[in-house]
Design brief:
Blueprint (H helix, E strand, L loop, with lengths): L1 H15 L7 H4 L2 E2 L8 E4 L10 E4 L5 E6 L4 H6 L3 E5 L6 E5 L7 E5 L5 E5 L19 E5 L4 E4 L11 E4 L5 E4 L11 E5 L8 E2 L13 E3 L5 E3 L15 E3 L6 E3 L13 E4 L7 E5 L14 E5 L8 E3 L10 E4 L5 E4 L16 E5 L4 E5 L10 E5 L5 E5 L11 E4 L11 E2 L5 E4 L2 E7 L4 E7 L3 E2 L9 E8 L3 E5 L10 E9 L8 E8 L5 E6 L4 E6 L20 E7 L3 E6 L4 E5 L9 E2 L10 E6 L5 E6 L4 E6 L8 E2 L10 E6 L5 E6 L4 E6 L22 E6 L5 E6 L4 E5 L8 E2 L11 E5 L1
Parallel strand pairs: 31-38
Antiparallel strand pairs: 1-2, 2-29, 3-4, 3-34, 4-5, 5-6, 7-8, 8-9, 9-10, 11-12, 12-13, 13-14, 15-16, 16-17, 17-18, 19-20, 20-21, 21-22, 23-24, 24-25, 25-26, 27-28, 28-29, 30-32, 32-36, 33-35, 33-37, 35-36, 37-38, 39-40, 39-56, 40-55, 41-42, 42-43, 44-47, 45-46, 46-47, 48-51, 49-50, 50-51, ...
């Protein structure tokens, strides 16, 4: 009867709260009792079909489970190496051919979403290998789309228990492990996707390297070794510190408590990554009979001379602890044991959530499956956490247990993130359609985990700047690749109740392909570049259409980053391009008023297939670009019959609508088509008056947070959209009041 009650409760939560989550019943999940505010645990009906020593969340939403020989000498002798893919949406498992023994390899995601798996096992302990396992030089890339391993060049050094950390340029830094003779390696290598650099020795303070050292990429490009590792060490052997891998300079970060008991503790960059704080929690010593520790320590690496400070202890001492960054910018810890399994350590059934803003822990529902050595936990795209594995001695835990955090049990509907770009570049703006029961309070990027032995040095959450729009949100991607290394991320929108959306996958790579500045047009056709804050002015356009001495230019629009169109007073549309760039396609379908100076504005759709021309009465005329379709009519725009009052037009980056500015500085919203949400009303930013320069144009900045009205002497007058903030500008041309020649603006 209790189980039936719990199932009904879980069904209600799944149906009412989690939105896009598939129902627990469909997945065959067995819920565990717990208060709604504590979260809850479920065990999947189908256990893992491999010994899940290594776990990685693929960009498809599926989870890669790597065993290799799975810490089983008989499997190794038989050449039985296994990998499986678990689909959280269906509970299904799929076997993957595994061409080598990946047991005890290192792994991290490449910028293109493939998983680098390097190293592994070439022998189990014996006299020929120093009575240790022996490492492998083999390396493979796992493709999440084809679901196959692809061989790449062998590394120079064999490795067993190496760490792989992605650098800001997308290359993979590989360090530590046992070589083919069972001795520790002392040199690093870097993989660029096809080749390996020659091995390089580390700094003198860090020569005798631990295995699976927790190495975090910091904002300045240095790597931070937190002191957490596998198989034990002390600060005297290899102290925590910041390592410049180019110069080999090493800055020791002192103050780590219990430094001899950080073996298979957790090391995590606290969210958001912008704060540059790393927390270590728990740990023990695999080869020594000592109790695990409950202590934590936090290093603020923004400081010039950082020192670890004690953090609040966990509720119970544990090693083999898993730490998972959650989309609400907290950290979930679970699993663990009282001491090393070699000395009969037993599972600890406890879980907590750490709140970085308040430096406090919250107790949550306890798991029912013990997780010791070779256990892992990963965040799923739907905001839950899946846990795997446990290898007390010779046995292995095959059950999969899933934690539903308290933020999915608030009783309120989740936000949703639907339409929006998948490919984004550093500094890009991206518009996403959202729905929410409460206002969106944060937007974050979360790196998918690739974890083993309580370690994923690449795990991080990055805050993303955003503004509310009429259809959802407009986000601004990070500009620093050391802060957010290139690759696939889960983008979550979190509402004011702390409830996250289901993640939308986005790919972050390369320099921004979107404008960070714009042009002011003069009446003769001259284009004058200017910059928005955080960007630079676009190149000058020396060869655009130009009518010296004839005030006939009326408006300008950009198409992408390298070109656009200039509108003359008769309605002629003239393509232009920056030096070295291709000329935009010709347009068709627009009206032309030969000899009548009545054309006033031009705007190009975000998809670049067409646009709109504005006449002085307020008429908005769609046109095609190249072979693109004719854009739909607009609704809600003003029209002044027989009165030349309209002065400029601009479109919102999300394509939902735009604004017309009139001769007295009022900004009028309109919709594209008739079904899209209303465009926000804005406050009139400028009143020309009897002495003020006439109004000449309007533009919206690319993040859709604000816009500008241009006056005839080059003055820009900002207006907020839905509470947004205008970016600062620089380099905007101005003219004396006796020469009011500015005619248009485009960003």
């Amino acid at each position: 009867m209790l189980r039936q009650v719990c199932v009904r409760r879980a069904r209600r939560v799944a149906a009412v709260v989690t939105g896009a989550l598939v129902s627990l019943v469909a997945l065959g999940l067995t819920p565990t009792a717990g208060a709604a505010t504590d979260g809850s645990w479920t065990v999947t009906a189908t256990p893992s079909d491999v010994r899940a020593v290594y776990v990685a969340l693929l960009r498809t939403g599926k989870v890669l489970l790597i065993a290799g020989s799975g810490n089983n000498r008989d499997n190794f002798a038989a050449g039985s190496f296994t990998t499986s893919i678990w689909d959280p949406a269906t509970g299904n498992l799929k076997s993957v051919p595994t061409p080598w023994d990946a047991f005890c390899a290192g792994h991290a995601f490449m910028a293109d979403g493939r998983l680098l798996v390097v190293g592994g096992t070439t022998a189990y302990p014996g006299a020929a290998t120093n009575n240790n396992n022996a490492g492998s030089k083999q390396a493979y890339l796992f493709d999440p789309i084809t679901e196959t391993y692809q061989p790449v060049a062998d590394a120079h050094l064999a490795r067993w228990y190496p760490t792989v950390t992605e650098l800001g340029d997308g290359r993979q830094f590989v360090l530590a492990g046992l070589d083919e003779t069972g001795h520790r390696t002392t040199q690093s290598e870097i993989f660029d996707g096809s080749t390996w650099t020659m091995p390089k020795s580390g700094p003198s303070a860090y020569t005798y390297q631990p295995m699976y050292p927790a190495l975090h990429l910091m904002r300045d490009g240095r790597l931070f070794y937190s002191g957490v590792n596998t198989f034990g060490s002390t600060g005297a052997d290899y102290p925590a510190g910041l390592w410049n891998i180019t110069t080999n300079a090493y800055q020791v970060v002192p103050g780590l408590t219990d430094d001899s008991r950080r073996d298979q503790g957790a090391s995590v960059m606290l969210p958001p990554a912008q704060d540059q704080r790393v927390m270590v929690m728990g740990g023990g010593w695999q080869s020594v009979d000592v109790d695990a520790t409950a202590s934590t320590a936090i290093a603020d690496l923004k400081q010039a001379n950082p020192v670890y400070q004690p953090g609040p202890p966990m509720d119970v001492a544990k090693m083999y602890v898993s730490a998972v960054v959650l989309p609400d910018s907290t950290v979930f810890e679970t699993g663990g044991g009282t001491k090393s399994v070699q000395f009969d350590g037993t599972p600890v059934y406890s879980a907590q959530i750490f709140h970085p803003k308040t430096n406090t822990w919250t107790k949550v529902a306890s798991p029912t499956v013990g997780r010791l050595y070779h256990s892992s936990a990963v965040l799923l795209p739907d905001g839950r956490v899946a846990t795997f594995g446990s290898n007390p001695k010779t046995s292995f835990e095959m059950r999969i247990e899933v934690f539903t955090p308290p933020y999915l049990q608030t009783g309120t509907a989740r936000p949703t993130v639907t339409d929006g770009p998948t490919e984004l570049h550093y500094g890009d703006y991206g518009a996403f359609t959202t729905t929410q029961a409460a206002p969106i309070s944060s937007v974050v990027l979360v790196r998918p985990e690739a974890t083993t032995h309580s370690s994923d040095p690449n795990q991080r959450l990055v805050d993303v700047g955003f503004t509310q729009t009429s259809t959802g949100i407009s986000v601004t991607m990070p500009t620093e690749s050391n802060l957010a290394p290139p690759g696939w991320y889960m983008l979550y929108a979190v509402d004011a109740n702390g409830v996250p959306s289901v993640a939308k996958w986005v790919h972050l790579a390369g320099a921004s392909a979107k404008p960070r500045g714009g042009y002011v047009l003069d009446g003769w056709g001259g284009l004058h570049p200017f910059a928005l804050a955080g960007g630079s002015a676009p190149p000058a356009v020396p060869n655009g259409p130009y009518w010296p001495g004839w005030d006939i230019s009326r408006a300008v629009a950009r198409r992408g980053t390298t070109g656009g169109y200039l509108l003359d007073g008769w309605g002629g549309i003239h393509p232009w391009a920056q030096p070295g760039a291709a000329m935009p396609p010709l347009t068709s379908g627009t009206p032309y008023w030969a000899g009548w100076d009545i054309a006033r504005g031009i705007a190009v759709l975000p998809d670049r297939t067409g646009g709109y021309e504005l006449d002085g009465y307020g008429g908005i005329h769609p046109f095609r670009i190249g072979s693109g379709p004719m854009p739909p009519p607009v609704t809600g725009s003003p029209y002044w019959t027989g009165v030349d009052r309209a002065r400029g037009i601009t479109l919102l980056p999300d394509g939902s609508g735009g604004y017309v500015v009139d001769s007295i500085g009022k900004v009028w919203p309109f919709r594209i088509g008739s079904t899209k949400p209303a465009v926000p009303v804005v406050t009139r930013p400028y009143v020309p008056g009897s002495k003020g320069a006439p109004v000449r144009g309007v533009a919206v900045q690319p993040n859709q947070a604000a816009g500008f009205v241009l006056d005839a002497v080059g003055g820009l007058h900002s207006f907020a959209i839905a509470g947004g903030t205008a970016l600062a500008t620089s380099g905007v041309p101005t003219w004396p009041v006796t020469q009011p020649i500015a005619r248009g603006i485009a960003i």
